[in-house]
Design brief:
CATH class: Alpha Beta
Bound molecules: adenosine-5'-triphosphate, magnesium ion
Largest sheet: 6 strands, mixed
CATH superfamily: P-loop containing nucleotide triphosphate hydrolases
Number of strands: 10
Distance between the termini: 49 Å
């Protein structure tokens, strides 16, 4: 039914062997994500959400089971091969933004392109385009400490977009933001989905999960619920134009 899976997790388990006792962080998880989904992953602390995101993002490999992206099995690739897949197909957004501090917004956005054979001018052009897409063209020269939290997260989203990924993975992207700014970020993620990007995000908040088209719950390393829903449209605060210029937000 419908499109074939873009991401297919097939009976995956992940066991961490770092401490004295093995930790079974994921146990027999199967999950298919189709193109154009906005999937929210919920579950209590330690349930395995970030472990799942790390696998989806090719940051780590499963202990057992298979993971296919666009039909290609990536679960047995070397770390170097995984890095190539990651750089080509996946953009990441984190709760704490993870921007380099003494570096301008546009330079932060350019970072993923350093692994590609592009001339500096072309890198800059694409980074400025990505910043425009998140409504921050005018902030290109600002450093992270000269930006609000919401603006920093939008720079991070621009950085996730600059490589033209098929998938954006966001681990609690609104975790450090107030509710108004959270809606702004969710509006942006919904816009990405409308533009054809598939988004998977982790959240602890039901209000945020309401903006997704599908919600799964992870408990003790297993997916225990999986519900499709009509997403609530994220309508940003009227004085903030997400896709265009910033107006009258009071932020210098
Ligand atoms: N690198 C690691 N080495 C060893 N154990 C780990 C590692 N990463 C996670 N774990 C363990 O795996 C389990 C799942 O952790 P995970 O980070 O996926 O949870 P989470 O659902 O993201 O939690 P939170 O909501 O607190 O972020 C936990 O018991 C955790 O202690
Ligand atoms: Mg986590």
């Amino acid at each position: 039914m419908g499109d074939p899976a873009l991401l297919a997790v097939d009976n995956v388990s992940k066991t961490y062997l770092t401490g004295d006792v093995p930790v079974r962080a994921l146990i027999g998880v199967s999950l298919e994500v189709r193109p154009g989904e906005l999937l929210a992953v919920m579950g209590s602390s330690g349930s395995g959400k970030s472990t799942l995101m790390n696998l989806l993002g090719c940051l780590d490999r499963p202990s057992e089971g298979r993971y296919l992206i666009d039909g290609r099995d990536v679960s047995r690739l070397s770390r170097a091969e995984l890095a190539v897949v990651r750089n080509r197909l996946i953009g990441f957004v984190f709760q704490s933004f993870q921007l380099l501090p003494r570096t301008s917004a546009v330079e932060n956005v350019e970072l993923p392109l350093l692994y590609r054979p592009l001339l500096a001018g072309e890198r800059r052009r694409r980074a400025l385009q990505a910043l425009a897409r998140v409504g921050l063209a005018e902030r290109a020269g600002h450093h992270p400490n000269q930006l609000s939290g919401g603006q920093q997260q939008r720079v991070a989203i621009a950085r996730a977009l600059v490589g033209e990924p098929k998938v954006v993975l966001a681990d609690e992207p609104t975790g450090n933001l107030d509710s108004v700014t959270s809606v702004e970020v969710m509006a942006l993620l919904q816009q990405l989905v409308a533009d054809g990007i598939t988004v998977v995000l982790v959240t602890h908040e039901h209000d945020i999960a309401a903006f997704a088209s599908r919600v799964i719950t992870v408990k003790d390393g297993r997916v225990v619920t999986d519900v499709r829903q009509t997403p609530v449209p994220a309508v940003p605060h009227p004085t903030v134009a997400v896709a265009g210029t910033l107006h009258a937000t009071g932020v210098p």
